[in-house]
Specification:
Helix content is about 45%, strand content about 15%. The protein has about 325 residues and is of the alpha+beta class. The longest helix is centred in the N-terminal third of the chain and has 53 residues, at about 40-90.
Length: about 325
């Protein structure tokens, strides 16, 4: 199967290694001032596999950081709104206590949240400094006994969550570059391998006739199918269903996924390969173990020619 996506590199490299290992004589490929043989190409295959696994781990870390930040935003925003309601109720028309912090939107950035929490902490200090009165006696406590010190700790945690989300995003970007460089090198070597085999052997030879392909032959792109992706609360898992492909040259369906609420083809990983005539349903809990986590999916139609088409993405978010 030729390369149509990042998920194809390792299987196609395996096809080339099988062909390479069956040659009657050792073969070397030029690469700069060095030579690449079967052993070196095998090592490259292992290195790429490790890099792809590490990228997947970092994508999972990024999704975990996103969920943690989202939950911290929700909690922080709710507490600021609760603080404002309490101040309005306890101190209506009280000089110096009428300027309340702005409640940030749930998708607001670091500054909006930290500035609002700083305003709340400053106002809380002034409230706690008030003398005892007939209605209120300091210190002010919110629902559940939340104190000013606890809101301060919440601010520190929220600040850390923003930092962790940024660091996780940078780690993904860096690891993606490593993987891409290895993929580019592997693809160049496989193209060169084909050129050398075709130069050394006759067109009708077994070696040329069995050469793996790097890219698909010219041909038509299949029609995509319609994907439905939902969370099954009773079973506690994501469930995918799709319409049947009418392509006569259909080889398989592929389920591919990306951690998070947005699908990116360059980060997709193969989650299942399913036969054309089997049930058009697939389910999994992978990537959704934590409440609030999300997985995005595409269902690919794969032809025997190597051409493919992906559905529109579907996202499943675990409630919580």
């Amino acid at each position: 199967m030729p390369i149509s996506s990042t998920v194809d590199y390792i299987p196609v490299m395996d096809e080339f290694l099988a062909h390479w290992g069956a040659l009657p004589e050792p073969l070397k490929l030029p690469e700069g001032e060095t030579a690449v043989g079967f052993v070196e190409f095998t090592a490259l295959r292992v290195e790429l596999d490790v890099a792809k696994t590490e990228l997947q781990r970092k994508l999972n870390d990024l999704e975990a950081a996103r969920v943690h930040l989202e939950q911290a935003r929700i909690t922080g925003g709710d507490r600021i709104a609760e603080f404002n309601r309490r101040i309005r109720a306890e101190f209506p028309n009280t000089p110096g206590l009428s300027r309340l912090p702005a409640v940030p939107a749930r998708t607001a950035g670091r500054d909006a949240f930290l500035d609002a929490m700083d305003d709340a902490l400053d106002l809380w200090n002034r409230v706690n400094a008030l003398p005892p009165g007939p209605v209120f006696t300091a210190p002010l406590l919110l629902r559940g006994g939340l104190s000013r010190d606890q809101l301060l700790a919440m601010r520190v945690g929220l600040d850390r969550a923003f930092t962790q989300r940024g660091a996780a995003d940078a780690a993904v970007f860096s690891q993606r570059l490593v993987r891409n460089l290895l993929q580019d090198r592997a693809k160049s070597l496989m193209i060169l391998y084909r050129m050398k085999i075709e130069a050394l052997h006759a067109p009708e030879s077994f070696q040329v006739a069995t050469l793996p392909r790097v890219t698909p032959l010219p041909g038509s792109t299949p029609e995509p199918v319609a994907l439905t992706a939902e969370w099954n609360e009773e079973a506690g898992r994501a469930e995918l269903t799709w319409t049947a492909s009418e392509e006569p040259d259909l080889a398989s369906y592929q389920v591919r996924g990306v951690p998070g609420p947005e699908y990116s083809a360059e980060d997709e990983t193969l989650m299942a390969t399913l036969p054309p005539g089997g049930p058009r349903v697939w389910h999994s809990i992978a990537g959704l173990a934590v409440p609030g986590s999300a997985m995005s999916y595409k269902l690919y139609v794969r032809l025997a020619t190597g051409h493919e088409a992906g559905s529109a993405p579907g996202t499943v978010t675990r409630p919580g």
